[in-house]
């Protein structure tokens, strides 16, 4: 399980849900059914407790988001139920404080849809934050218990020798020649390991179970290994570190976890989890008095096409500078999606949409993009931006005149209010919104025909100016001053296009993010480097775009809809005028935009 702010909301947002129960538990699944059964059979709601145990060796990604949402939804099943955040910090060579800080921020952001909580403790169903290293002494005492019971021994095989004696899926393993060391000798060696008297790898502590077990995880698994390295939480106190499979059940028991939720790759590890639960005296370790020991339940991990969700592979993208860090908006990390303008509500909605099963399946990334669009369509204010400007001179509009037009900040929700949009003689429209000739399906501006400017007048194109190469560089149009905000009864204009006033336009640079991989399943062929499936157009930078005047005051923090274009979010004060595309208005990979405008 270890590798298992766009939070600001504009005034007058619609469609938000403040109830945690409604947000997180409105979709049933087999795990929630099992939890409800336990509650109906007498488990006290206050004894219902889950945990999310990330390893702090990278940033959290979308697969972790699924686990967080699932664990928290269980914690919301009853009063007093909670979810703990427990860092699995048993491998200090790969762990950093940077990752710990990022994980805290991601968990808080994801579960804090209404941005009311300032820290994890403010979340209504959050329990405590812990580290596996918080229990190093108790875990060590559990190891001593097993040695004293004759259920663990110090093994001096090298890693290569251990591999050779482990056996295969069809052949049993061989007992270590050190398996029959006496309890006294094992205790002395374990103490010496604890005191730092041996070199890395010189010894391990192994459980004494069954080398002939059909489950390789039960063939005398390693419980402790020697690592003389500095730990980010405990310093140099511990020269030995427990393995995750030993740490996991003990930490669960010490925290009074009732349901330990893991992805399916841990199903074969469950017999070892249960073995530790049976053989360790948790009362002697100071575990809380709970009705029952934790139960491990597995569910299918998230697989998303056009994406990799392996932390090791994501780290390679970062290390080889294929992306700009863990929070690059193309990354499927929670930090990357937040930077791109994905909302916590949309990610929670996505996690509910895909459900929780025990069957591995590949989710289409368009499902994620749909969840984002569905949320932003209700909550994102509107603005106009022209990506490829084409100048339009409205020849019958007075040269010295300017007027401020009223435009709704959201077309379906008057609570958002309005914004002032300046209008003048010279404006810019999208170059793609004009054709000299077009069929009836083209509902934008055509030479000799009319179109409505969004929130403004109807204009007719009377001429187009070309340069020496024949490229259209300017349009001459006439406006009808009686058409502001309405179509006259004697004629209806079907087409509507967006525009910006030339004198008031705000220069913008747009980062158009797309899927990081063009290969649907970049990890499917194990013989080919997954990087060969990279999408060369995952980032296109558009210089020279122009936005409406209101964008000069955009403080960022929440996405906008650039009308007829897509959802965008300001990169932030460190990059003024730069906007990241969150998602386009439609799934362009499913056939592209139509020709109707």
Automatic annotation (TrEMBL):
<dbReference type="InterPro" id="IPR049437">
    <property type="entry name" value="tRNA-synt_1c_C2"/>
</dbReference>
<dbReference type="Pfam" id="PF03950">
    <property type="entry name" value="tRNA-synt_1c_C"/>
</dbReference>
<dbReference type="InterPro" id="IPR050132">
    <property type="entry name" value="Gln/Glu-tRNA_Ligase"/>
</dbReference>
<dbReference type="InterPro" id="IPR020058">
    <property type="entry name" value="Glu/Gln-tRNA-synth_Ib_cat-dom"/>
</dbReference>
<feature type="region of interest" description="Disordered">
    <location>
        <begin position="1"/>
        <end position="23"/>
    </location>
</feature>
<keyword id="KW-0030">Aminoacyl-tRNA synthetase</keyword>
<protein>
    <recommendedName>
        <fullName>Glutamine--tRNA ligase</fullName>
        <ecNumber>6.1.1.18</ecNumber>
    </recommendedName>
</protein>
<keyword id="KW-0648">Protein biosynthesis</keyword>
<dbReference type="InterPro" id="IPR014729">
    <property type="entry name" value="Rossmann-like_a/b/a_fold"/>
</dbReference>
<dbReference type="InterPro" id="IPR020059">
    <property type="entry name" value="Glu/Gln-tRNA-synth_Ib_codon-bd"/>
</dbReference>
<dbReference type="InterPro" id="IPR004514">
    <property type="entry name" value="Gln-tRNA-synth"/>
</dbReference>
<dbReference type="Pfam" id="PF00749">
    <property type="entry name" value="tRNA-synt_1c"/>
</dbReference>
<feature type="domain" description="tRNA synthetases class I (E and Q) anti-codon binding">
    <location>
        <begin position="496"/>
        <end position="570"/>
    </location>
</feature>
<feature type="compositionally biased region" description="Low complexity">
    <location>
        <begin position="7"/>
        <end position="18"/>
    </location>
</feature>
<dbReference type="InterPro" id="IPR000924">
    <property type="entry name" value="Glu/Gln-tRNA-synth"/>
</dbReference>
<dbReference type="InterPro" id="IPR020056">
    <property type="entry name" value="Rbsml_bL25/Gln-tRNA_synth_N"/>
</dbReference>
<dbReference type="GO" id="GO:0016874">
    <property type="term" value="F:ligase activity"/>
</dbReference>
<keyword id="KW-0436">Ligase</keyword>
<comment type="similarity">
    <text>Belongs to the class-I aminoacyl-tRNA synthetase family.</text>
</comment>
<feature type="domain" description="Glutamyl/glutaminyl-tRNA synthetase class Ib catalytic">
    <location>
        <begin position="48"/>
        <end position="377"/>
    </location>
</feature>
<dbReference type="Pfam" id="PF20974">
    <property type="entry name" value="tRNA-synt_1c_C2"/>
</dbReference>
<dbReference type="InterPro" id="IPR001412">
    <property type="entry name" value="aa-tRNA-synth_I_CS"/>
</dbReference>
<dbReference type="InterPro" id="IPR011035">
    <property type="entry name" value="Ribosomal_bL25/Gln-tRNA_synth"/>
</dbReference>
<keyword id="KW-0547">Nucleotide-binding</keyword>
<feature type="domain" description="Glutamyl/glutaminyl-tRNA synthetase class Ib anti-codon binding">
    <location>
        <begin position="380"/>
        <end position="480"/>
    </location>
</feature>
<keyword id="KW-0963">Cytoplasm</keyword>
<keyword id="KW-0067">ATP-binding</keyword>
